[in-house]
Specification:
Number of helices: 18
Helix content: over 70%
Number of strands: 0
Structural class: mainly alpha
Order of helices and strands: HHHHHHHHHHHHHHHHHH
Mean pLDDT: 86
Length: about 475
């Protein structure tokens, strides 16, 4: 770890201490947390530039910048969102400590240090989920998170003990010296920790329940917490055993299919976002399992920024009434050939870009399938509302193609810059198209199959926290409506 990166984490640690000291003065605590977080992020940015010039640990540097920057953005939003909340100072302090823990997980070069920071992050998140107070849904959220996350932490500590007893040290550079049996046991523990953080099957229940906490908490979870599984799997990839990849990949593939289907049934904005997050985290674990490491790390940051922004903006999403300007609607539907051709052009453009770049591995080529599907679905949805306007259709197709090509170019450049020296995947690449096919079949069955009603009911109830029993000691009006169903 470079001196600049140590300095950035030291600034964040000082910020967390100062914020905790001002916890009873919410406005002061929020100001200290925000300004200190920005300062730490700027120092981490300097560390990233230094890592680029010196060709040192770029993964740790870029992830620390990501963690601190997203935390600072959430703290800036929370200053206004939690104004008047007596627990706003507590939130600022916990957010500062969580950023420090997540930054240490991303950059530490010792398995014991990673495990200590990992468990510290778990404790902080459980405390954050109690921000709403001691009422029904908040209790359910804390209980589910405590069970799922602490089981994962136990798996990580099992890996630490196994490696220490066998190798005699816990430095990440010595993991390759572990005996096969030790590596398998440690890999299972690492996978347990990764899938519990990612809210993957069978630890899928805690993330939907976390919606009982305020919106800034949901956004903060994307700053290196729910997406820490990829970092842990990459840091321990030298273990001479495929167990971690096999377990994480199986859990990720299952979660992509089920959580992706459950997302389609949610009528509420935050409900769709949380199940989309679970599905995306399954996608991240799957990328690690097939050896697409740089795509997984890119996904950690891109998804974290995107989903944190969506959560912070979820309160402004309201239905818009349909209006008409009195102009006559275009006559005739869009010709099927035009629509098919436009979607095909948009979907095949990223493939052409990848072929032009060359040098793609089988794993990255397999993950490109999801890019193609995303672009095709986006283009098809945009073209669905057009009628008799082929020029607009081709313009939209060109825009979608441009987004797909830009994604391929950016991820390719990121992979070259990251220059990872990591082993191959534990799962073969054909698992990816198989998962995509299953997800497509489930989406189709949800709408058109005879079993659609049963499938819809299963997906709608997936991971939904139960309604808490009525609490006669507390009036319903005392519970903010944002926190969920009132007891």
């Amino acid at each position: 770890m470079s001196l600049l990166l140590i300095a950035a984490l030291a600034v964040q640690a000082a910020t967390a201490i100062a914020t905790s000291a001002a916890i009873r003065r919410p406005a002061t605590a929020a100001r200290i947390a925000l300004r200190g977080g920005i300062a730490a992020a700027l120092v981490a940015l300097a560390a990233l530039v230094d890592a680029t010039l010196r060709d040192s640990d770029r993964v740790g540097a870029v992830l620390v910048v990501f963690v601190l920057a997203v935390t600072a953005l959430v703290l800036g939003f929370a200053r206004a969102n939690l104004r008047g909340d007596p627990a706003a100072g507590r939130f600022a302090a916990l957010a500062a400590w969580l950023a420090l823990a997540s930054g240490l997980v991303a950059s530490a070069a010792d398995l014991v240090a990673i495990a200590l920071a990992w468990t510290a992050g778990t404790v902080v998140v459980i405390a954050l989920l109690g921000h709403a107070g001691d009422w029904g849904q908040a209790r359910i959220a804390r209980r589910r998170a405590a069970v799922a996350l602490l089981v994962g932490d136990a798996g990580l500590w099992l890996a630490v003990v196994a490696v220490r007893l066998d190798v005699g040290a816990s430095a990440l550079g010595g993991l390759a010296d572990a005996a096969p049996a030790t590596a398998a046991l440690a890999g299972a523990g690492v996978a347990l920790a990764a899938i519990s953080r990612a809210a993957a099957v069978p630890f899928h229940g805690w993330l939907p329940a976390s919606l009982a906490a305020p919106t800034p908490v949901s956004a903060l979870l994307h700053a290196g917490f729910v997406n820490a599984g990829a970092v842990l799997l990459l840091r321990t990839a030298d273990l001479p055993s495929p167990v971690a990849g096999l377990v994480a990949g199986a859990a990720g593939a299952t979660t992509v299919a089920i959580a992706g289907t459950a997302m389609l049934t949610r009528p509420d904005v935050k409900g769709r976002l949380v199940h989309s997050t679970a599905a995306q985290m399954g996608f991240m674990l799957l990328a690690c399992a097939i050896g697409a490491w740089y795509l997984a790390i890119f996904h950690v940051m891109a998804h974290g920024l995107f989903k944190a922004a969506l959560f912070l903006g979820s309160g402004t999403v309201v239905p818009k009434p349909e209006t008409t300007d009195g102009a006559p609607a275009p006559s005739g539907p869009l010709h099927p050939a035009v629509r098919f051709g436009a979607v095909a052009v948009a979907a095949l453009a990223p493939v052409a870009a990848a072929l032009a770049l060359g040098g793609a591995t089988a794993a990255s080529a397999a993950m490109l399938l999801f890019t193609v599907l995303a672009v095709a679905v986006a283009a098809g949805g945009a073209l669905g509302g057009l009628a008799g306007r082929p020029g607009v259709a081709w313009a939209l197709a060109a825009a979608a193609a441009g987004v797909g090509v830009a994604y391929v170019l950016v991820t390719h450049a990121f992979g070259d810059w990251l220059a990872l020296d990591a082993p191959g995947g534990a799962l073969p690449w054909p698992v990816v198209p198989a998962v995509a096919a299953v997800l497509a079949l489930l989406a189709f069955a949800l709408r058109r199959s005879r079993a659609a009603a049963a499938l819809y009911g299963f997906a709608l109830g997936w991971a939904r926290p139960p309604l808490p029993p009525a609490d006669r000691r507390r009036p319903a009006s005392a519970v903010p409506s944002e926190y969920g169903s009132r007891p």
